[in-house]
Structures are given as structure tokens and as C-alpha cells.
Give the backbone structure.
Amino acid sequence: MNTRRKFLQQTLLGGLAVGSADRLFDTLDLDDSKAPGTFPVVISTWGPNVKANAAAWKVLSAGGYALDAIEAGIHVPEADPEDTSVGYGGLPDRDGHVTLDACIMNEKGMAGCVTFLEHIKHPISVARKVMENTPHVIMSGDGALQFALSQGFEKEDLLTEHARKAWEAWKVESKYQPVINVERHDTIGMLAMDTQHRLCGGCSTSGLAFKMHGRVGDSPVIGAGLFVDNEVGAAVCTGLGEMVLRTVGSFLVVEEMRRGKHPQKAVETAVKRIVSKYPEQSKDAQVAFIALDRKGRHGAYSIHPGFNYVLYQNGENRVIEGASFLKT
Ligand code: SD4
């Protein structure tokens, strides 16, 4: 055994002995040669979420809580009628209902989720209330709506004229086919770490356009669409949820980081897992992960080219083209 590896193993055992997860992670990460990141930091799926990132940064740069930053950031696409994949303006299911999925997870490992929620513009905030004001993790459908109303949320019609027309047009053929990155704005997944080193994440979506009524994707499912472990890192994803649900993708990314991988290597492992399990489906469907570790380093990777993400770090909000498994 070479001296370096021996040293790593000894320090790893030392880390375990004192029971410090921080130290355990630092020790495992010694192999990494890339420069450490900085924080606060916020990262989101898809370029158009540059505005969401800016809203989150406002909270973070003022010394605020990462969870507040996540909520403020995700509110931006949720309220935007032009964003047809999130909140108000989201494309409906095949029966014309806008049904929303969202989840949120904090630095203490607490989580709240809503699935199949109708009529509430900001599902991310309802998810936060589930986490903070109930003993539960997931609330769904009409129960989630009743809960939201009891918490003071307003019931609204979320189907915009644009979305209704798109649904009418879809009904002519009534055929669902995943289309890869055509619009380049989609589900928002956001991860943030604040000045106090608290790592939080959230995800919000109207899911697949024209999905079956009642279909729930990966986005509100902890471990699939989002996972946060403050001692290690966090991951969130976008794309065809069924492939992520079957592979528990975001949890896999975080576990890879726990084993010492850089976030970039960790997201690559999750994408490769999906491609190797579902080679046929992967030809026509996109999945993309972003990850952030507790050092503020990030990674992003997708099956197909065309995925981009937004990173706000060191005072700069940048849209970055992600690398992909397939090159064309
Ligand atoms: C879903 N993962 O409902 C979501 C959709 C999505 O980019 O992320 N689209 O399957």
C-alpha cells in the first residue's frame, strides 16, 4: 500500500474515531486537485434561471439563510407565466389540469414535499410549510391543497392562455414524446450554501407536459429529484423523472461525493448509471444533474448536449454550458 493511501486510511479511521463528519469528508477529499470553491454560492438548473439565482443571491449576500434564498429564488420561475415548466404558466396534464410537484430540504436533513398540487402558485413554499409545520414529509393532491389553504395560500387558476392553447394543440394528436432541450428552460432545481455554511436545496416543476392525470415525477421525491446532506453536499436534477426515480439519482450523487468524489465526477457517475441501465430510453430522453459540495465546488452533467445551468459565486452570476455523456 503506498504511503499516501495508508495516510488516507489512517486519517479516515481517525476521523471516524472522533465522529466528525466534516473531518471524514475532508480526509476523503484529499485526492482532489481542483481549487476549492467559495461560498456563499447558489447554483440552478437551466440558463433562464439566472433571475432566480439573482434573487437567491440577494438573500445570501446579505448574510441570509440558504433556505430563504432557495425559496426566494424558486419563486421567480414559479410566478413567471412565460416559464411553461414551473408554477403559474406551467403546461397542464392531458386533462388540462396544471398539477405541480416541489420539494425542499434543509441543512439539518429535514424535508418537505408536495405532489400533484393544483391551484397554488408557489408549491415550494407549501413544501416548506409541510417541513416546518407538520410531522410529515410529503403531502399530495387535494390534501396538499387543503393544507396550503389552511396555511393562508391563495387558490388561483394557473392555466394561462398560452398553456391552454398548447394543450389544445397537443390534443389534436394526443401523443407524448419527450423532447430534448428544445426550450432550454425547464424544471428549476436550486442548491445554495450560505455564509454560515448551511447547505439547502429545492426543486419545483409542473412536470412532464401533458402527462397522465395523477402522474408524479422525480422532482418532489427526496433522494430522486433532490438530496441534501450538509456534511457532504447536495444534488438536484431535471429531465425525464421516471429514469431518475428508478435510480434514486440525487442520492447517488451525494453518496458518490461522500465516498470522496468531486461533484463533477459524482454527477457523471449518476448519468452513466442511467445510461447503462436504460440505453434505449436514454437515446430520446434527457436527464441532467447539478451538484454542490460543502466546499462550494460544483459539477454538472447530462445525457445529451444542450443542458446549461447558472452559478452565482464570487459575486458573479454565470450561465455555463454543462458537459454531456453523448456529444451530439
Ligand atoms: C419530471 N423531472 O416531472 C421532471 C421534469 C423536468 O426538465 O425536470 N423537466 O419528470
